[in-house]
């Protein structure tokens, strides 16, 4: 015996409701996809401000200097090149993003020290070369920027590891706190 199945059309109200629900689902999925695509598109172009990248670089330099001092009888290295060659920081961290300096790059590690020592590969001046890390107080500057790259401010790394952006007018007072052995000439 063959059973016949009869198709009974849905009432108009139910078919209209299903069509509306299906359309909402399609538009909802499309809207979610567009929001996700726009968010990832805009997030790709979002970069931190250059002064903040510079401060992060200085903090990394400070950590590397302290690690070097801990390994070498609390003495800071003779220059910043030493911490790059010892792989504590990358050459890119020696360059402020708003300066015209470019990171040192070489194929051979033996050439890296010579490349990093060139002035165009470092935006910072090391003020505590060879000093004892424990002889410095927390308000002694140990690394400063060579030039005011951030609109009248210079980032300064202090012996305790914090970084401040100092107005150029106040820089002379900060430089007076440098130990006499490394006080740079004006």
Explain how this protein is built.
The chain is α+β, with helices and mostly antiparallel strands. The chain has five helices and four strands, in the order ααααββββα. A four-stranded antiparallel sheet has the order 1-2-3-4. Strand 3 and strand 4 form a beta hairpin. It starts with 11 loop residues before the first helix and ends in an 11-residue tail after the last helix.
**What's the total number of strands?**
4
SSE topology string = HHHHEEEEH
Strand order across the biggest sheet? 1-2-3-4
Shape: elongated
- What structural class do you assign from the helix and strand content? alpha+beta
Number of helices: 5
Which helices and strands occur, and which strands form pairs?
Layout: H1 12-44, H2 50-71, H3 80-85, H4 112-116, E1 124-126, E2 141-145, E3 153-158, E4 163-167, H5 171-175
Antiparallel strand pairs: 1-2, 2-3, 3-4
Explain briefly what this protein structure is.
By secondary structure, the chain is of the alpha+beta class. The chain has helices at 12-44, 50-71, 80-85, 112-116, 171-175, and strands at 124-126, 141-145, 153-158, 163-167.
Name the features.
186 residues, alpha+beta, 4-stranded antiparallel beta sheet, 38% helix
